[in-house]
């Protein structure tokens, strides 16, 4: 488990693996170097050795699969200067990253594939090619083109192309999906790229977790809060959850998407409309799903454990 030790998704998957009789070991990058150390040697078959962790040791020869979540910052001594800290961080990142990615193991999912799949424009183009319904969209830094796009349809929203968090006044803030009108789009658009998209008038959201071996789990997310219906992250207290069937064409497109980007896991978000259409919004390969299993009992962790172990479906 290449994850923070209290990461909810990783804990769910670890528990499912243990029930299947698998030996599970953790490596939280925040442990290094204060609570973990390593020596490995290069052989004709690759790197051999061990990583010593607080409660266990990872023998590289024994690693058959890796469940990868977001890495945490390394814990370097406070005595390091800022240049020394930057150097140490880069060396540790490339050292551990190169080591883990050199192992002939099954990944859910491989870090290089995850890095590519984070780009929203790539997600959208892949989704369109795989047969999803994708809202009309434009990426531009031309204010006139942005205003023209806003006037051309029934309403548009602004979305960040990748980073959804910003730091302002020493506070971390989320960037939500935001409806805009042509009158609200000003010349500041010229300063960087902006993504505008037709605002789908949805009845509810659906989050689908799909694995590379073909399993799919759909959870309908509903709210009566108008702002929450626009972006459910602003109204968690008002949300209700229900397991829902995934239409065959949507499930097939999810599988095609994972094959196209060489992923073993995808967390897809859809806007479901009153006419039964499911509109693709994004696929976050590292997005959260544990709270949905907790709320509904959907066996998502079991599916991921099957994928890690190569179990037949």
From TrEMBL:
All residue ranges annotated as the MvdD-like pre-ATP grasp domain in the record: 5-110
SUPFAM superfamilies according to UniProt: Glutathione synthetase ATP-binding domain-like (SSF56059)
Domain of life of the native organism: Bacteria
Gene3D superfamilies assigned to the protein according to its UniProt record, in alphabetical order: ATP-grasp fold, B domain
Pfam annotation, one family: ATPgraspMvdD
Protein name: MvdC/MvdD family ATP grasp protein
Organism: Actinomadura sediminis
